[in-house]
Amino acid sequence: MMAALTAAERGRSVVLLEHEKFCGRKLRITGKGRCNVCNDCDVKTFLRNVPRNPKFLYGALNRFSPAETMAFFESIGVPLKTERGNRVFPVSDNAHDVANALERAMKRAGVKLVPSAAKEVLTRGGAVCGVRTDGGEIACESALIATGGASYPLTGSTGDGYRMAASLGHTVTPLRPSLVPLVCADDCCAEMQGFSLRNVTLRAYDSSGKLLFSELGEMMFTHFGVTGPIVLSASAHLRDHARENCRLEIDLKPGLDEKQLDARLLRDFDKYKNRDFANALGDLAGRAMIPVLVRRSGIPPETKVNSVTHEQRRSLLSLFKAFPLTVTGPLSLDAAIITSGGVEVGEIDPRTMQSKLVPGLFFAGEIIDTDAYTGGFNLQIAWSTGRLAGNHI
Ligand SMILES: Cc1cc2nc3c(=O)[nH]c(=O)nc-3n(C[C@H](O)[C@H](O)[C@H](O)COP(=O)(O)OP(=O)(O)OC[C@H]3O[C@@H](n4cnc5c(N)ncnc54)[C@H](O)[C@@H]3O)c2cc1C
To answer: Are the C-beta atoms of residues 370 and 345 closer than 8 Å to each other?
Structure first.
C-alpha cells in the first residue's frame, strides 16, 4: 500500500493486486487491534532493534525515518500518540484507522485496486513485462512483490511471494518463526496455564549456558509453554541457536537481590511461623504458582515454617530468583508474529529495492530477509522499504 501510493503520487499508473476481500488484513490486527505503527526513535536505535540484516535497511530508513513516517500518517489523517518504549499508536487505538487512511490516500492518488491473486511475474528478455493473475494477465514495466511473510496465513500472507521470487531466480533463505510463543518440556506450564507474571525478568540461555537474552516485563504460562511480550522478544534472540534445549530462567523478584529476598522470606516465615510451609508463600507468589514452587523446592509441603532449614530456604530462594524452564522449540510459523528469512538481501539493491537479478522487479516489507523485535519496528521496515520502492518504480 505504501509503495503503491508513493508510485502513484509520482504519476505512475499503479495496479494493486490483493487476494483478500480487503486491503491490510494483517495490518488491521497489529498491536492487538491498536496498531503499533512505528517506534519514535532515531535510525541508529532502530537498527539496534533489527537482529537480521540491519545494514541492508540503512538507506531505506534514512530516506523514510520513523519521524517521517509519523509525519506521513498525521498528514493522511491519522493522529498519533507515543507510549512506553517509544511505541507509536493511532490516538484512536484503532488499527482500522491506519489501514483505512492508507486506502483513502491510495484512491486519491489514483491506485487501481484489483481484487485478484498474483500468480506469477512475467519477464521478457530477462526483464519484467507483466503479472499473471487469477483473472488474466496485466502488462507492466515494473512489479513489486510485497506479499508479506508466511505467518498468520489467514490474514492473506500465504507465502506466495517467496515462490514467485524463487521462480525468478531469487534465493529465499530458510523461513522460520520469530516473535513466537515457546514450547517447554515442563509439565508445570500446563498446570499454571493462563497465569500471568508482571515485572519479572526473563533470561534465555543456549545449550552451552551462554546468556542470550534478559528483559524485564510480562509473560504468561500456557498449555504448551510460555507466551507474552518478553517471551516473544526472547524467541527472536533464540532463533539463530538450536532452540531445542535452550533454557529459560524467570527472576520472579527482580527488584530484590538474594540478600533482600532472604530477609523478606524470613519476615514472611516469622509472620506465618505456625503454618505449614506450603501456606506461607501467599505474600510472595501468585496462587497458581505456589504448588509448583513447593514441589520444585523439594521441601515437604507439610513442613512447619519454623522448621524449614537454611538449606531449604536457599533452594526456595534460588527458585524465586531463577525459576527454570526447558525450551523444546518455538510454536509453528502459523502462530508467529514475524517470518524470519526470505528474499536474500544481497540480491536486492538497498538504494532502490530493485532486484539485482531481474530489472523491473522490486521487493518491500516482510518478504525480504530482514526482521526486527517488537515495538513497531517491523511495520517501519514495511513503510520504509515500501516508500523507497515506490520512489524508484
Ligand atoms: C498478530 C500480529 C500483530 C502484529 N503487530 C505488529 C505491530 O503492532 N507493530 C509492528 O511493527 N508489526 C506488527 N506485526 C508485524 C507486521 O504486521 C508485519 O511485519 C507487516 O504487516 C508486514 O507488512 P507487509 O506489507 O510486508 O506484509 P502483509 O501485511 O502481510 O501484507 C501482504 C499482503 O499481500 C497480500 N497477498 C499475499 N499474497 C498475495 C497474492 N498472491 N496475490 C495478491 N495479494 C497477496 C496479503 O493478502 C496481504 O494483504 C504483527 C504481526 C502479527 C501477525
So the answer is: yes
Please work out whether the CB of residue 378 comes within 6 Å of at least one atom of ligand 1.
yes
* C-alpha closest to that of 226 among 207, 200, 206: 200
> CA–CA separation, 212 vs 245, rounded Å?
13
Q: Which three cell numbers stand for residue 50?
A: 533489527
Q: What is the pLDDT of residues 111-123, one digit of tens each?
A: 999 999 999 999 9
Model confidence pLDDT, tens digit, residues 294-347: 999 999 988 999 889 999 999 999 999 999 999 999 999 999 999 999 999 999
Query: H-type helices in 26-89, by residue range?
Result: 43-48, 54-63, 66-75
- Please give the number of the atom of ligand 1 that sits closest to the Cα of 376: 11
* Closest approach atom of ligand 1 to CA 35: 8
Atom of ligand 1 nearest to the CA of 364: 26
Q: Does the Cβ of 46 fall within 6 Å of ligand 1? A: no
pTM exceeding the 0.90 threshold for the entire prediction: yes
Q: Within 13 Å of residue 144, how many CA atoms lie on the same side as its CB? A: 30
* Contact (CB, 8 A) for 122 and 130: yes
Q: How far apart are CA 222 and CA 203, in angstroms?
A: 18
Are the CB atoms for 260 and 284 separated by under 8 Å?
Answer: no
SS3 279: helix
Residue indicated by cell numbers 516465615: 269
C-beta separation of 298 from 162 below 8 A = no
DSSP string, 348-369: B-TTT-BBSSSTTEEE-GGGBS
